Amino acid sequence: MNVEKDKKIKEKLGKSSVGIAGAGGLGSNAAVSLARAGVGRLVIVDFDKVEESNLNRQYYFRDQIGKNKVDALKENINRIYPFIRVDVFNEKLVKGSMDKYFHDVDVIIEALDSAEMKTAFVEEILRRLPGKPVVAASGVAGYGHSDRITTKKLGNLYMVYDGNARSSEEDVLMAPRVCLMANWEANLVLEILLSENK
Amino acid sequence: MSIIVNGRKIDFVKNETVKDLLKRVKYSFPLVVVKINDKVIPRSDFSKIVVPDNSKIDVIHMISGG
């Protein structure tokens, strides 16, 4: 390992903050990867509770069923690294104030589930927080077809994208593809945070 | 007489608006961005702008799942 590079990256990431909208398959897995990478502060917003059906792809454990997702996720992250600051909000994001919790973070991850909410979130953030990078994902359902996933960059919006995927109503949600796209989002966040001009 | 939508060649239809085209290709999901020949089309113009012949259209849409 390149010790000097590692030290520089840790320093930079330790001072960085990432907002995550949603703590389901995308959000919980992206959050844990960013925590392991050394991001100093995470802001996580979700209103759901952990359910049995989440365990096939979300970063929760059986004994956490019934807990608020944000509390369970904070617990899991701080079991890995107790020093990471995890600010959680057990709230539902609503149209008209999607940006509410994300004004002071460096990058925002869209990790919601319905297409309608995803679109509303991205559009509102781009409009209300101009200049703030947003990383979103579309097309996570199904399995296989890893090679169809690409990154689409449109100004400050970075989309992890498979336009040929079916919606989660018509297909299945499974750990390999969900985690792949969650980590793709996390990886883009690192690219943004560590870009030379930042 | 044809246009290319997300890499797929389809028939050109005279006087077809962006909105009509999206309906024709069944992109019924809420849309993030439509580009015609690399130019972003504002959503408010979807029912006004007519798709030109031989154009290349990119539609990025949000698909449920997370």
How is the topology of this model organized?
The complex is a heterodimer of chains A (198) and B (66).
Chain A: H1 3-14, E1 17-21, H2 25-37, E2 41-45, H3 69-80, E3 85-89, E4 107-110, H4 115-128, E5 134-138, E6 150-154, E7 157-161, H5 175-193
Parallel strand pairs in A: 1-2, 1-4, 2-3, 4-5, 5-7
Antiparallel strand pairs in A: 6-7
Helix pairs in contact in A: 2-3, 2-5
Chain B: E1 2-5, E2 8-11, H1 18-24, E3 31-36, E4 39-41, E5 56-61
Parallel strand pairs in B: 1-5
Antiparallel strand pairs in B: 1-2, 3-4, 3-5
Structure description:
The complex is a heterodimer of chains A (198) and B (66). With 198 residues, chain A is an alpha/beta fold. Chain A has 5 helices and 7 strands; from the N terminus they run αβαβαββαβββα. In chain A, a hairpin with a 2-residue loop joins strand 6 and strand 7 (157-161). Chain A starts with a helix and ends in a 5-residue tail after the last helix. With 66 residues, chain B is mainly β. Chain B has one domain: Beta-grasp domain (Ubiquitin-like (UB roll)), CATH 3.10.20. Chain B contains 1 helix and 5 strands, in the order E-E-H-E-E-E. In chain B, strands 2-1-5-3-4 form a 5-stranded mixed β-sheet, with no helix packed on it. In chain B, a hairpin with a 2-residue loop joins strand 1 (2-5) and strand 2. Chain B starts with a strand and ends in a 5-residue tail after the last strand. The interface between A and B is medium-sized, with 37 and 15 residues.
